[in-house]
Amino acid sequence: MLNAQRRHYIGLAVFIVLLSTFFLFHGYSTTYETVLRDPCRYSAPIKSSAQPDLRAAVSSLFNSIKHDITNTEYRDASGKLFKANQTIWNKPLGKKILIVDIDTRVPNQDNQILNTETINFETLEMNGGGLVSNAIMNHYLYAMIHGYDFKYYQAQSIKDHHDTWILPHALRELIPDYQFVVTMDADVTIPHMEVPLEWLFNRWGIQPHTSIALPWDTLEVRDGKKASVDSKGMLVLNTGFVVAQDSATTRDMLEKWHDCTSESRYAGCGTWAETWSHEQRAFSEYIRYDYNNTPETVVSIDCDDAMGYPGIAAEAARPGEYEVSDCSGNFVRHYTLNKGQVKEAGMLSVMNPLAELLRKQLLKNKNTVWYQEPEKAEQSETSDREKVVLSDIDGVLPTG
């Protein structure tokens, strides 16, 4: 049973979430029908058909609290200060950026985002298509706020490969139509909806010649041994959040990554076709070394910025048995160990900026919406009106 506080969160958040859900389904009906008709994976990028009216309304709604790209400092609601390291990206890129959810799961069952009836966010389950539904709502709303393009890419499984191997080829197919393609796993949420990707690119040191950026994985120690490192002992990069920038180098990189398990170029890569951590380990084991043309070709994002979530270390801690580094996911939260938290994280990501919007609106219109009752006189003092009443009474009462 949800407690009162969580019910308040849901009640306020559901308005924006369900409004986005309605337009998402209707705006993407053509794309979804194409998916159902064609069992093969997409051979070309599908043009976005999102409703422009909703985009404009959402963008306008959040406009007053969007963080200025050129402001090198950002302070979150808790007062924590973050700084950008450069100002290369100083103008909104808009639809030059694509945010895409790539998944083999189709969220079209009861109470999921692409079902033809309705959706109840309160009872949305955080597994399978429910988890994908929650991700689409969070990522799509973020895209609308900042004017980015958005797609849900339903991919087909690759024979004899874990389903996460859909990532390299999907990125390769999509990237020619965009300057940047940003993809996130279904258990990833954006906690600060007001912070644009362009500002984060500046913070993370992404350059005009950068091909790809990924966060350092959390350092996992199992039975005293490091589990999240490659064969050279270097921490792997996590593919739950990927920023790819279009270039000849990037396209070549993605093709080699997709083809890695054939071992035509990378001997031993076939091991990772179905062995954990699949395409993620293959990238860290081979690709990042092969394409390290400059220190900025492959950018490693700080784990505390784009991996983990608040409390992950304490939650996972089993001293001497299993431990995880304390990465809080300041700007991209990846709930790898507790997908049950994703739903509440999505609600808070909406509620925090909505609360700020309401605060500003209330103060802006304080003269009409804020009534301040005048202070009352002390009880020991008699008001003028009371004096008049007492005087009238004295005139009618008998004396002596």
Automatic annotation (TrEMBL):
GO terms for molecular function: glycosyltransferase activity. It comes from the Eukaryota. It comes from Ampelomyces quisqualis (Powdery mildew agent). The keyword Ribosomal protein does not apply. This is Nucleotide-diphospho-sugar transferase domain-containing protein. Belongs to the glycosyltransferase 34 family. Keywords: Glycosyltransferase, Membrane, Transferase, Transmembrane, Transmembrane helix. GO terms for cellular component: Golgi membrane. The chain crosses the membrane at residues 9-28. PANTHER family: ALPHA-1,6-MANNOSYLTRANSFERASE MNN11-RELATED, NUCLEOTIDE-DIPHOSPHO-SUGAR TRANSFERASE DOMAIN-CONTAINING PROTEIN. GO terms for biological process: protein N-linked glycosylation. InterPro entries: Glyco_trans_34 (IPR008630), Nucleotide-diphossugar_trans (IPR029044). Coiled coil: none annotated. Gene3D superfamilies: Spore Coat Polysaccharide Biosynthesis Protein SpsA, Chain A.
